Amino acid sequence: MKTLRENGNVLMPIDTAGRMLELLLVMEQHWEKNRLSYPLILLTNQSYTTVDFARSQLEWMSTEIGNNFDNSRENPFVLKYAKLRHSLQELDEFIGPKVVLATSPTLTCGFSLDLLLKWGHDSRNAIIFTIKPDPDTTGARLLASAGAPFRFPLTVKRRVLLEGQELADYNQREKDKKAAELAQKRLEEAEAEKKALEEKQKSGSNLEDMEDVESLVSILPVVHNPFVSSYDWVNGVDMLSHNVKYPLFPFEDQRNKWDDYGMVVDHERFVTGFAEAMALETGPQTDADKEQEEEPVQPSKIIDVHDTLHINCSIRYLALDGRSDGASIQRILGQLEPRKLIIIHGSEEATNALVEHARSALKGKCDAVLAPDLNQVIDATSDTNIYKVLLPGAMLATTKWQTLKAKDEKHTYDVAYMDTTLSSTVQPTALTTFATPT
Fold first, then answer.
1. 53-62 pLDDT, tens per residue?
2. Residue 156 phi/psi, 5° resolution?
3. Which long-range contacts link 243-252 to residues 24+ away (Cβ below 8 Å)?
4. Are 361 and 352 in contact (CB under 8 A)?
5. Which tens digits make up the pLDDT trace of 103-116?
6. Is the distance from CB of 116 to CB of 79 less than 8 angstroms?
7. Rounded distance, CA 236 to CA 36, Å?
């Protein structure tokens, strides 16, 4: 808040999802509780899609979010204060101090790197890390600087348009590529026609095709009078003139083609119908829309730009990534105060450091601190809560035992309750008694 009041901007490098959603809800609640008017912006390439998916997946959220939605029917991801943007041009709409959650947390690429180059030199701005960056990244170097002003060389990848000979070579390659695709298409069409002709010859009679029927009718002499006495109305044939069937009325019978998988689908009918439906829904296409669709994509390439980054802004780190680093584990151990501690996984250096810390910080509280090697067996049993008691025979004779079944219902236990005082001076006169399965 101090940075915002001093007319500075705050950059929070985040991941694309996961902890970003939790941080977004926390920021949204803080803005609502304090009624802040500063712009809160989520700047990622998939900001709209990510939040939209989160709205429809509340069943995977925490129990608290689910209960709040069941009671109030308010979706927490219907954001009231956070604005979703996915380009730097849209970010320029917000004038004045603002808080921007941008990807990625390593500051090696994405919008976070662009904003770092834009805001890093101004001492009024601040960068707050909520996720510890990976080693050997720009974010890790910034975090290691402890917020002190410094500068270091930085290589940034930029997209630039092709020019000169590179553009001419690109156009020639595209031209050759289109010519090869056209030749390949013609070759495939010729092979398809050849295959169709062979199948047609194998099918037998050409009269199954309506075009062949029409051509046959045009060749035969036209002698067709259905009103003579020799005309067969049932079969449509003049019994005296020709022994050939003629159609009584002109009718084009569309034959369906079949293959091994069934009737062949005419894809053009669906494409045409879809195009007509889209035209009715969107309205007539204007000249501006046609120009926008026909506008060619400018060829470009990625180049490395070497620059020196000047950092004067303040840098802070808030442990909100949900990971158990060394400092977090040490705090947890101090709160738990375990009697025995077994440390596994981790590098040898980190394991030895944690063992030394546990032995010094938990001295007198932790009986053993163990760091076993790979495949080493450790006896982790403990009898601190089990006591062996010897009862005299007279007491056993008057004790009322109750038989209970175990959870697996295969074993039973004899259990009794006694209210007595234990003394180490009494000599045992009976056998040791335990609740043993029978």
1. 999 888 888 8
2. -115, 135
3. 244/220, 246/217, 247/217, 252/210
4. no
5. 988 888 889 999 99
6. no
7. 89
